[in-house]
């Protein structure tokens, strides 16, 4: 019987919470995707909830938990599932899936189970099927015993109903949380902590950076390149270079991508570079004056917050953070180009004040934000008041 049940009929009091992660190696980086960062940020948020006694990151794979992990085990306790399972009242499945056997074991003990959804699962499934990129190899397990499904806002539009139908329960949209803790650790060794400092007080031609992953249609470099092209046609002397990372293979091997890019003046006039993968904070600090971004069905992303926290001008179309950077509407490359020119022209104007303004806007996503904490405490209270599913 769980502690939460013993302490009074299913009240969210003194809750011991586990958040799953799925390690693939003992020293796994935090930067290959956002899932582990999401687990850490959620853990920080829940620790601020008055009804929570402890939060543990729970590894569901056979990879050992060691001091090689890129986070403090004192600040973010991390244990193997089998070591932690007897001391939990609620398990939030986030980065490591629980199979039927583990689910049944938790349910038998009265442990609540929440699925925390922070990926574009509908899009991943659709692309996997349409483009023959096997995802499950015929071994799909859909857990139908969740007590709740928590979905971050940026994936709810495309994936909420997909998840609800397959998992046979209703989901709810929950606050997105982010923290600069890992960004600041990564930038500590950079000059001035890697924050934006305009070259020649903003008078030098701008180096534009596009850092989309280019692995699906959600975040692809094509619209940023079109935006840069329109700005270059209007103000060629204002742009020194367009740099597109995560695009080297496309530029070398994909004949359609090559043909398309060769239609652009900024490419034909040798003002564009297509590069491989780069560390975001370092590339920003060493190579970037303005960042240009585009998304489909991804209206809030760690990358936007990292760029703006450091004070870099960001031209973007992310609807859930319109107040950050220089927002353009939907797929309007002409609007994006106008905003890009605005960003280029404003580079030398009170960069410290701009950075502080961006950070004030980002504060609503931080783990200690009062509204965020109250919302998660209310979610816990409502969850623990319901019968076990």
Tally of individual domains: 2
Helix content: 25-40%
Q: Give the biggest beta sheet.
A: 7 strands, parallel
Count every beta strand, where a strand is a DSSP E run of 2 or more residues: 13
Protein name: DUF2827 domain-containing protein
Characterization of this structure:
By secondary structure, the chain is an alpha/beta fold. It has 2 domains: 3-179 and 366-385, Rossmann fold (3-Layer(aba) Sandwich), CATH 3.40.50; 186-365, Glycogen Phosphorylase B (Rossmann fold, 3-Layer(aba) Sandwich), CATH 3.40.50. Helices cover 38% and strands 15% of the residues. It contains 16 helices and 13 strands. The chain has helices spanning 3-6, 35-47, 81-84, 100-108, 121-130, 153-167, 181-187, 222-234, 248-253, 255-261, 265-268, 280-287, 302-309, 333-345, 351-362, 370-385; strands at 15-21, 52-59, 78-80, 90-93, 112-117, 148-151, 171-173, 206-210, 239-244, 272-274, 290-292, 314-316, 326-327. The strands form 2 sheets. A 7-stranded parallel β-sheet has the order 3-2-1-4-5-6-7, with helices on both faces. The chain has a 6-stranded parallel β-sheet with strand order 10-9-8-11-12-13, sandwiched between helices. α8 (222-234) links the parallel β8 and β9 (239-244). The chain is globular. It starts with a helix and ends with a helix. 40% of the residues are buried. The model is unreliable at 1-9 (pLDDT under 50).
